[in-house]
Amino acid sequence: MRELTYVAKRTVEWREAPDPTLRSGREAIVAPVAATPCDVDSSILAGHGFIEPPFALGHECVARVVETGDAVTAVAPGDLVVVPWSINCGTCDRCRAGLTAHCTAVPYMAMYGAPIGGRRGGLFSDLVRVPYADAMLVPLPAGLDPVAMASASDNWSLAWRLVAPHLKARPGARVLVVARGSIGLYVCDIARALGASEVLYVDPDPEHRTLARTFGAATAETLEPVPQSFDIAVEATGRVEQLALALKCLTPEAICESAGNHFRPGELPLLDMYLTGVTLRIARDSVRAHIPDALALAASGTVAPEKVVSHVIDWEDLPAALPEKHLKPVFVRADE
């Protein structure tokens, strides 16, 4: 089989690898049918990552189950499934607590798409081995389009977690989204669907702002801090100075969620945060626990994740097309 390999800045190529085989009765082999780059993949491709190439890339996809071990009961060959980005057993104390990105049964932070916690390959591969298939794989609900939900492995489900629980606790909250990619746009869609009274989306890209307005958000090219304006903030830029600006806009005891990958250091307005009583969370999220709820919202018809898909591209064009600057391209198998 082939796996798409990141080899240098804005350069990927197909490389041959052995076909994966089942190593236990609890495993499955899947074939991605719709895969998409995560926002962090865009940073890696631009040369901003912290891991030296080469390594197999990709950690967001909907796949078709090809083969299952004798002990697998949750899925069967032919099923369409969401493959979460992190490797997790589902039964250790952390997994049972929903902290699947911190599973104690595997090396720390074991994942697809980067050689952290071992080399597990990437989801831009012809075939993928999934350990702990019953714990990891989530069947795609009938009627949901694999192209629209290719990001449920990470960005779509992460966006749900960034805003949905907070809106449940704070109905009608005002939401600030400071972003550069798909996560922020998904947050706009979800926030309005779940009753936010106001959503402001800040992004220098005019096409992104236009799309955010279709989700009912007000938009701005840059953020001018206005203290005590928002109850919830989501930062997804990877720029510490943007996170600092967002923090200065919050009401007392507000929530700020940072989904940016901050590869560079910076300063935060700690005194402002202290005086306001802000709660800041910065995390590589354990999305497996949230995928079913995120898929249920997608199936409800109140959101439109398909709007964020910027291009649908043939699987064979991955090496040439992935390094190009697209918002959210989805790569599909020709026979699907």
UniProtKB/TrEMBL annotation:
- What range(s) does the Alcohol dehydrogenase-like N-terminal domain occupy? 27-140
- Signal peptide extent: none
Keywords attached to this Swiss-Prot or TrEMBL record, sorted alphabetically, are: Metal-binding, Zinc
Q: Which cofactor does it need?
A: Zn(2+)
Q: Report which residue ranges the record marks as coiled coil.
A: none
Where does the source fall among the domains of life? Bacteria
Protein name per UniProt: Alcohol dehydrogenase catalytic domain-containing protein
